[in-house]
Amino acid sequence: MMTASIAARRSAHGQALVEFLALALVLVPFLLLLPMIAKYQDIAHATEMAARYVAFDATVRNEGTTGWKPNDQLAGEVQRRFFSNPAAPIKTNDTPGDFKAHQNLFWRDPLDNALIRSFNDDIAVSYGEDRSSSRAAGYKNASDDTPFIGNEALLDLDAPGIFRGNVSVSVANLPESLVGPTRSYDRFKNIDLRIRRHTSLVPDAWTAANTNAITERLGANRAAPIHPAVVLKDVAEIITPAVLVMEGLPGGCGSPCGPQIGKLDYWREVVPADRVPPYRAPR
Predict the structure, then answer these.
(1) Torsions phi, psi of 196, nearest 5?
(2) What is the pLDDT of residue 128?
(3) Distance, CA of 70 to CA of 131 (rounded, Å)
(4) How far apart are CA 181 and CA 62, in angstroms?
(5) Beta strand pairing status for 139-140 and 123-127?
């Protein structure tokens, strides 16, 4: 009976060894590929953030404000701020070079080759569903101007639609000379991976530099009968005398505390100078 028990233990140990080796054939290649998968995922995340940057730049620089940022400048900012050395300082007109000091040191293959070989050739910025190089082609018609039909010109409104910014990155294949255990790298030698991300939003073209610019837009074209400034002015001429009488009655609040209808200067949001802390240069 003891002999049979020893034989059963040996058989169990042998079965466990076979199961371990079978699992190792599956798990070891996967474990070896985890660093490469993490690098691809990190590049994909950077591409998504870069697409957001391209789209949101259109909210402050478009044909309704100061004009589009030059394409080369925007592409250089995307390359430098999202795909180069993450410790690089943010500077104007700073573009990365194809050398190790400007590259992301995490994005390298097991032979220490860069996964993004050329910033200009492997990183592309485009606009719209057709991935055009023209910023104007980034718009898609939308109905965001429907509430302002008939008032676009009077209010200086512009509703071009939905803007889409695209960023794509070509990731280099692993070199043919790379040999790993269980040939785990072979499938990545001809993968021709291209990561694409995009962000769509509705830029607010009705922007102004300050409150004076907003007042000027609302108060312009007063000769137009449907302009809100004209309507408010007419209402104010009717209500103001009654408001003055009510303010002067006993128990009234005194002038001027009533509704300041049509007085755009009164409703201007200005922070008093004494509420703004003085600037202190960093030490």
Answers:
(1) -125, 135
(2) 93
(3) 17
(4) 53
(5) unpaired
Helical spans, DSSP H, in the chain = 2-57, 71-82, 119-122, 211-219, 228-248
Answer whether 197's CB lies under 8 Å from 92's CB: no
DSSP 119-169: HHHHEEEEETTTTBS-GGGGEE--STTGGGTTTTTTTT-----EEEEEEEE
The model's pLDDT over 42-59, given as tens digits with 9 standing for 90+, comes to 999 999 999 999 999 998
In residues, how long is the chain? 283
Contacts of 177 (CB under 8 A, 6+ apart): 111
* Residue 275 pLDDT: 74
> Cis bond leading into 35, ω under 30°?
no
Query: What is the CA 147 to chain-centroid distance, rounded?
Result: 27
> CA–CA separation, 36 vs 188, rounded Å?
9
Half-sphere exposure in the Cβ direction for 3 (13 Å, CA): 0
Torsion 157-158-162-164 (CA) sign: negative
DSSP state of 103: B
Stretches where the chain sits below pLDDT 50 are 221-225
Q: Compute the radius of gyration of the chain from its Cα atoms.
A: 32
Q: Are 31 and 174 in contact (CB under 8 A)?
A: no
What pLDDT sits at residue 82? 95
How high is the pLDDT of residue 222?
A: 47
- Cβ-defined contacts of 133-138 (< 8 Å, 24+): 133/71, 135/58, 135/62, 135/68, 135/71, 136/63, 138/58, 138/163, 138/164, 138/165
Cα separation, 170 vs 193, in Å, equals 6
